[in-house]
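Retry 2 of 3 after timeout on previous attempt. Resubmitting structure tokens to design endpoint.
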């Protein structure tokens, strides 16, 4: 009987550990998704900035050509 009680205690501990790991995994997945969203947002912002820089350079070149 003592062996069965020890095994049951170990099984219960394993189940508790498994649940704790599942909760931690979900929290980490949520954090990862949040970081991916922020990264996508920054990539879009950088692309917008590059487009604005490119259009500004095009306008400046156009004005330089018009003044010649």
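Retry 2 succeeded. Sequence:
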């Amino acid at each position: 009987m003592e062996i069965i009680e020890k095994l049951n205690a170990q099984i219960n501990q394993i189940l508790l550990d498994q649940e704790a790991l599942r909760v931690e995994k979900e929290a980490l997945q949520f954090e990862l998704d949040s970081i991916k969203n922020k990264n996508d947002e920054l990539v879009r912002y950088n692309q917008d900035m590059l487009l604005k820089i490119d259009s500004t350079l095009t306008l400046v070149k156009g004005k330089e050509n018009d003044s010649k």
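Attempt log closed. The first helix runs from residue 2 to 67.
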